[in-house]
Write a sequence for this structure.
């Protein structure tokens, strides 16, 4: 099945793993959190999911400033999809689902016996409302109808196999009896400080420094949650969170740490797992027909730069060995191998090939000048590469690329800009090269990247801001890719999808509108002494980071205090 991805929470993830600097609060656990026998059964589980101080109470799942604890711990989806592995979705508020033959209708069986945390029954009417209200109605949905007390049928204006995840794994179920009283504007703006959800936790308190969730004693999964109280801390710097981990005062956090083993082996009881997920690339403004300017608009320059990069050195020096190997197909190696065409290279080269890079340029009519830089028609291959100031791993990688490119006769000047300048330039197309991230898919299928990042339907001419939901920052437009994307979107047949993906991969691995670098680290630290049930390499049942939308609630529900 083709599935899509949830963007908003994944953007938070990208920000965390690319070096956003954050700083600390004095909240920590204490002996008062323990039970009478000193065991961990009564202790508060302390979490950092990226929130900074002062924390502002907002548990509205449709609000941009929603707190992490709302997304999974309080509100739930119909199913849980495991971003970390190729696996079937786990039933939650939905028990089963089935597509019709042409992908225009999705029938979902709803779990019975579930109640909202205010005591009201969860019903099919709530599901219908969750898919038809003005805040979250899918644009492609034509109707949502309850056909009996346990069945909802969603109907669409065309095949929607590719949006399975968005519908079943990223659409929050909300109570009609609470939300129907809100206007369309209120549904996205009210702070919802006392949220009514079906999840394993309810909100207890919120302060500037932290907010606390307590177990929903009427939760529909018997015996869960076993951890009765969870405190989400506001911390303003990675170093402060690292210090709390080492002291044993933080139990779960997802963040970039250059020396994770030092944290895991410190005095604090801390387990560690790294699950690289999101591609780090060089965005290139590639399409001269849509207004891009500079040498990078020539595919030969992009191909030569791709071969000039020593990815092994970048992984070791900029990402301290924590990044994963990237595929130029943008399928996630290991998880998505079935979708990689045998006719393209599975992995991007890990060492530079200076001779091959030069040959590509010379075959394209470039000649090396006295200064060692290639030029054609009087224009030198001189490029500006920007990265966000303070994203130290990206800044270091950009400097390495500057050195490596010059060795191949390509003049790259690396510089840093503010986040706002970075955002504005990629939105408008006013750049040559940017060190940036691609949002990896939440399911074992690269379709979402192909459609959102490579499709001509998801971009604008240079000078025109991309619209919400458009991610094709390179301005890439290739009718062969566009047709293959449409073919993949219209089928649920694996062989047909593989054929469409082979076409896409042949085009994008040649054209390289985004030059692949690494799969960036996704690090998670957790207290595996006082609590059991964490996702591990041996049992990676869910995406592990504390900031994971949907998955965080699923993980919390599976934790138990150590005996």
């Amino acid at each position: 099945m083709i599935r899509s991805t949830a963007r908003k929470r994944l953007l938070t993830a990208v920000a965390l793993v690319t070096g956003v600097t954050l700083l600390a609060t004095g909240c920590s656990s204490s002996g008062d959190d323990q039970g009478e026998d000193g065991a961990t059964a009564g202790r508060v589980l302390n979490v950092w999911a990226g929130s900074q101080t002062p924390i502002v109470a907002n548990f509205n799942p449709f609000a941009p400033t929603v707190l992490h604890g709302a997304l999974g711990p309080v509100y739930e989806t119909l199913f849980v999809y495991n971003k970390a592995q190729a696996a079937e979705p786990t039933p939650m508020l939905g028990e089963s689902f089935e597509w019709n033959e042409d992908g225009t209708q999705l029938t979902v069986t709803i779990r019975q016996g579930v109640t909202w945390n205010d005591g009201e029954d969860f019903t099919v009417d709530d599901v219908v409302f969750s898919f038809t209200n003005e805040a979250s109605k899918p644009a492609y949905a034509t109707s949502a109808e309850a056909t009996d007390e346990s069945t909802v049928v969603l109907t669409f204006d065309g095949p929607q196999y590719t949006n399975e995840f968005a519908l079943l794994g990223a659409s929050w179920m909300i109570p009609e009896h609470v939300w129907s009283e809100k206007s369309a504007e209120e549904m996205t703006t009210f702070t919802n400080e006392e949220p009514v959800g079906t999840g394993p936790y309810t909100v207890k308190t919120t302060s500037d420094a932290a907010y606390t969730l307590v177990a929903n004693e009427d939760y529909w999964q018997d015996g869960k949650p076993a951890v009765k109280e969870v405190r989400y801390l506001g911390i303003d710097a990675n170093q402060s969170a690292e210090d709390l981990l080492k002291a044993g005062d933080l139990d779960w956090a997802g963040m970039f740490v250059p020396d994770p083993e030092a944290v895991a082996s410190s005095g604090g009881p801390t387990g560690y797992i790294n699950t690289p997920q999101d591609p780090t690339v060089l965005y290139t403004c590639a399409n001269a027909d849509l207004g891009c300017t500079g040498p990078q608009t020539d595919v030969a320059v992009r191909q030569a730069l791709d071969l000039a990069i020593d990815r092994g050195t970048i992984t070791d020096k900029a990402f301290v060995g924590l990044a994963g190997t990237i595929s130029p197909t943008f399928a996630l190696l290991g998880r998505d191998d079935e979708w990689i065409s045998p006719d393209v290279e599975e992995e991007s080269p890990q060492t530079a090939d200076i001779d091959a890079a030069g040959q590509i340029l010379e075959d394209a009519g470039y000649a090396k000048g006295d200064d060692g830089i290639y030029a054609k028609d009087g224009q030198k291959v001189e490029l500006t590469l920007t990265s966000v100031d303070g994203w130290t791993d990206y800044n270091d990688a950009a400097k390495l690329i500057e050195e490596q490119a010059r060795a191949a006769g390509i003049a790259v000047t690396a510089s840093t800009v503010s986040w706002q300048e970075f955002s504005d330039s990629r939105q408008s197309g006013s750049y040559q090269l940017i060190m940036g991230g691609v949002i990896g898919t939440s399911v074992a299928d690269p379709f979402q990247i192909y459609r959102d990042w490579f499709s001509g339907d998801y971009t604008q001419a240079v000078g025109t801001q991309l619209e919400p939901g458009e991610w094709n920052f390179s301005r890439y437009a290739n009718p062969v890719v566009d047709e293959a994307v449409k073919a993949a979107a219209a089928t649920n047949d694996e062989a047909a999808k593989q054929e469409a993906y082979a076409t896409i991969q042949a085009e994008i691995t040649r054209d390289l509108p985004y030059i692949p670098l690494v799969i960036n680290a996704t690090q998670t630290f957790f207290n595996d002494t006082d609590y059991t049930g964490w996702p591990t390499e041996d049992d990676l049942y869910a995406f592990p980071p504390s900031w994971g939308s949907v998955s965080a609630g699923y993980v919390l529900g599976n934790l138990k205090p150590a005996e």
About this structure: The longest strand covers residues 141-148. DSSP finds 16 helices and 23 strands in the chain. Residues 193 and 368 are 64 Å apart (CA to CA). The two ends are 41 Å apart (CA to CA).
